[in-house]
Amino acid sequence: MMRGLGNIVARLTAARRAADKATSHNHGQSLIEMKGFGSNPGNLLARTFVPSNLRRGAPLVVVLHGCTQNAGVYDVGSGWSQLARREGFAVLFPEQQRANNANLCFNWYLPADARRDRGEAMSISQMVKHMTVQHGLDQARVYVTGLSAGGAMTSVMLATYPELFAGGAIIAGLPFATANSLPDALGRMRGQGGPTRKSLADRVRAASDHAGPMPSLSVWHGTQDTIVDPSNASAIVNQWRDIHGLGTSPGLVETVGRHRREVWRDPDGRALVERYDIRGMGHGTPLATRGNGACGKAGPHMLEAEICSTRRIAAFWGLTDANSVSREPRRKIVERVAVPDAEPASPRTHVGHRTGEVGAIIEDALRAAGLMR
After folding, report:
1. Residue 323: predicted pLDDT
2. Which of 4, 19, 290, 311 has its CA at 20 to 30 Å from residue 352's CA atom?
3. What CATH fold (topology level) applies to the domain 2-368?
4. In this structure, are residues 227 and 172 in contact, taking their beta carbons and an 8 Å threshold?
5. What is the pLDDT of residue 30?
6. Helix (H, G, I), strand (E, B) or coil at 343
7. Contact at 8 Å (CB) between 81 and 28?
C-alpha cells in the first residue's frame, strides 16, 4: 500500500512541477473572467469564451480542467474554444485556486465540496445559471466535461444537478460519491475498494430530488492509465447504465482507429451512454493534433492518440454534425454482445481510519506533495 501511495504522490508532485510554468502565465488568450455569478461558496474562478457569432439560444459547454492545470492550459490543449468559435456555442471554464487545493485539483472527494448546494459544486451551478441568463443561452442544451479530478467533478455535477445538464463526458475520471476523504480518493484512483454496483446507482438517485430525464454520458479512459485505474471507467458506466435502466450489453461495439467504442441506446434508439477505451494511452485527454479534424495541442496530460475527444464528445451531444468528426478507419465488431458486469473490487479497510506511525507518514507525504490541506 505504501509503495502504491508513494508512486501516486510522486507522479502528482512531478506533474505539478512540470505544469507550474505553464499555469503561471497561460490563461488562454480568448478567455474572459466572469465575476458576480453568485455567493461562490467554493471560492472558484470562472472564465468564459463567447464567440462573436454567438446567437441567442446557443448551447453551453462547461469544461473542468485536471490537476496541475488551469482553465487556459486545458483550453489550449483540448481546443474547446476553437471548436466553439467554429460551431457557435459558449464555453464556461470553472477554475480551481491553490488556496483551495495546492495541486489545483477540484475537491471531488470532499462532501463539503461535492454535494448539492455545497462548496465547489454549488459554485459551478451558480456559474452555469448566471451565464445562461447573461448570454440568453439554451438552458436545455448545457453540457459538462472534465479530465481526471475535473472528470470526477463532472460526475459530481451530473449527479447533484442533473436538471442543469443534458449530457456529460468524463475523461480519466471516477464515479460519483465513491470517496469521502483524500485517502479514500487515492484508494479509488488505484482501483481499490469502493461501493457495490447497486450502491453506485443509489448514490446518484439520492444526490438530488430530480425526477425528470437524466443526462447522457460519454466516458473516455486510457488503457495504460497508471494515475486513475481504468476500472473506474467500468464503474462509471455501470453507475449511469443503471440510472438509465440500460442492460449490460451494448447495442454497438466498434473500433475507431485502434480504439474501442461501445454504445448503449434506449428503446427509441437514442444513445445514452458511450465508452471509449483509448488503446495504449496513459493519463490524459485524447487528442488528434494532426490531419483532418485535428484538435488541441499536446502537453502534460494532453496526449496525442490519433482521436479527437473534444470533437467526438461535441458530436455525441449533437453540437456538431457527426460526419464532421475526423474520419478514422472504423470497423464494427458486433451488435448486441454480452459484456460481463464489472463489479468494483471488494471494499477494503478504510485507510482514513489508520492511526500511529503509518498514518503520520502518509499524511506527511501528502502534505509534502501539496495534496493535503
Report:
1. 63
2. 19
3. Rossmann fold (3.40.50)
4. yes
5. 80
6. coil
7. yes
Q: Which of 339, 342, 344, 338 is CA-nearest to residue 199?
A: 344
Contacting residues for 56 by C-beta, under 8 A, at least 6 apart: 136
CA atoms within 13 A on the CB side of 365: 20
- Could you give the maximum distance between any two Cα atoms of the chain, in Å? 60
- What value, to the nearest 5°, has the Cα angle with vertex 32 and ends 26 and 34? 125
CA distance 58 to 318: 12
Divide the 373 residues of the chain into consecutive groups of 10 and give the mean pLDDT of each group: 52 53 50 97 98 95 98 98 96 98 97 98 98 98 98 98 98 97 95 93 98 97 98 98 95 96 96 98 97 91 97 97 58 41 33 36 42 46
Q: Which long-range contacts (CB under 8 A, 24 or more apart) does 118-121 make?
A: 118/41, 119/41, 119/42, 120/41, 120/42, 120/44, 120/94, 120/96, 120/153, 121/42, 121/153, 121/156, 121/157, 121/160, 121/161
pTM of the model: 0.84
Residue of 30, 78, 81, 148 marked active site: 148
Between helix 197-205 and helix 231-244 the angle, nearest 10°, is 60
Residue with the three cell numbers 455525441: 316
- Identify the pLDDT of residue 37: 98
Assigned C-alpha cell, 70: 488551469
Give dist(CA 23, CA 209) in Å, integer: 38
What pLDDT does residue 367 have?
42
Which residues face 95 on adjacent strands?
45
Q: Let me know if 30 is a catalytic residue.
A: no
Give the ranges where the chain is alpha helix by DSSP (H): 2-25, 71-78, 80-87, 119-134, 149-160, 182-189, 197-205, 231-244, 309-316, 356-368
Helices in 26-62 by DSSP H: which ranges? Answer: none
Query: Domain residues of the chain, as ranges?
Result: 2-368
* 3-class SS of residue 145: strand
